[in-house]
Amino acid sequence: MIEDYIGFDEKRLEELVQQIKERDKEIRAFITYVDKPTSYEGPFKGVPVAVKDNIVTKGIRTTCASKVLENYVPPYDATVVERLKKAGFAIVGKTNLDEFAMGSSTERSAFFVTRNPLDLERVPGGSSGGSAAAVAADMVPVALGSDTGGSIRQPAAFTGIFGFKPSYGLVSRYGLVAFASSLDQIGPMARSVKDIALVMQVIHGKDERDSTTLDVKIDFMKDLEEDINGMKFAVPKEIFEYEGLNEDVANSFEDFVKLLEKLGCKVERVSLPSLKYSVAVYYIIAPSEASSNLARYDGVRYGLREAGENLREMYMKTRNSGFGEEVKRRILLGTFTLSAAYYEAYFYKAQRVRRKIANELYEVLKDYDAILTPTAPVPAPRIGEIKDELTYYLMDIFTIPANLGGLPAISVPFGRSGNMPLGMQIIGGRLEDVKVLRIARAVEKAAIS
Ligand code: GLN
User: Fold this and answer.
1) Exposure winner among 90, 169, 211, 305, fewest CB in 10 A?
2) 223 lies in a domain?
3) Residue nearest to atom 4 of ligand 1 (CA)
């Protein structure tokens, strides 16, 4: 927990990084270690934090787990990193991910696979799999992840920790390497709700350098311990119609509902008829935005450059050897869906369905305090078990809606499948982030005692 580390000086941090390295030999959560972390002054002086390697860190290599940025050392800090340092947090390393955060298992890192600390034969989930593994293996109390379609929540579920995606606009994306800008959000991963709240307290709020940030200041500690007696939750009936739902997940979800009822809450089934289009909509919008965002890796400005006979050849060679297969697939897909001939049929239509899904969510959230779902339909798969991307895409079914609607959502460790942990998701209304954490805290208290 965060409070166990407050006051760590540089010598202790140095020792800690050595321990992390030792522990990380079999897990491989980190791409880069900071051998001599700075212990900044502040209320959280010396508390170690791991940062997903698509969030830029001044003077520390930031690779996005891609060959195209393998040797890129940013000249500036992301706003979240700047704020963490100002509060005293010490950056101890950069964690592995699926290349450019495109994936669900960390198997798509251009460098190596990260292993699930709870079963080394299984994936830790993704794309923030390195951050999840580092926290789950107790190498650090907290880590930052990014979530475009579930990349904080799903790995949290697969590794038995908490992972929170804040409301869109609450945390600055300045310095987060852009994947799909209208969906991306940075958020904390930790082993307690309190630690999630403490990090949110530090990183959220208006940032002049990200015009999508909101001018709000929230007290994340307020009401955290209040009970949730009398709250009303909605469960989309479509969850049970989804054929990919694993039986252990379904059973644990029922237990989750029962627990909330025991805590004095009302849980009702509702219908979200457009939910089934979420995955299809996401895999048009996210690649479209990605194809545009990734145009900058052309060998001219920074990152990898492969020499060519002329400019065009240099571009082509750089992008061909710099990007992995999944990233290329998304760039191709996105270029297609944005092309003049197909824009109306795909991108434009997807935007309209996105709005429809979001409106359905907002409607339900007018009458209910939160929407409940499992975080992922299955427990963590074995490394290499899933060969086709489509199976992974479909796994995002429960996490994507919160991104489409800009809603806050948390994955809470709850239930088991064999010896693997499961996660349950709580999705709240726009800017009701504190309420989401309060519900998670109530579950945490009840499930532990
Ligand atoms: N699994 C999703 C994808 O591959 C989500 C990734 C993310 O949230 N960054 O796009």
Assistant:
1) 211
2) no
3) 103
